[in-house]
Amino acid sequence: MPAPDLDGVYISERGEGRITVTHEGYLWSNSSQNRFKRAVTILRRLQRNTWRCDWCFEDLQTWRRADARYCCEGCRKRAARQRRFWRG
Ligand SMILES: [Zn+2]
To answer: Which superkingdom (predicted)?
Structure first.
């Protein structure tokens, strides 16, 4: 399995809660627009503090989908199991 790559999106913290998302689209110009939108989505989620796993509250990796809700398959499954539990 290949190591997850950053998909051209880099997120860096510059102190005082300021976060910068850097987007590199020069290699894949066809998808650069999508990558830019993705970077903006991730940045907005970071600003709202929702760029984290709904289950364990770990920060999500930048290679996750911009609409990802869980950090890993395990958390997604645990959350789904608990939803079933509460629903009875
Ligand atoms: Zn998690």
So the answer is: Bacteria
Cα-to-centroid distance, 27 and ligand 1 (Å): 31
- pLDDT tens string 9-62: 777 777 776 777 776 655 555 566 777 788 888 888 988 899 999 999 999 988
Q: Report the separation in Å between the CA atom of 71 and the middle of ligand 1, taken as the mean of its atom positions.
A: 4
Q: Count CA atoms closer than 13 A to 42's CA, side-chain side.
A: 27
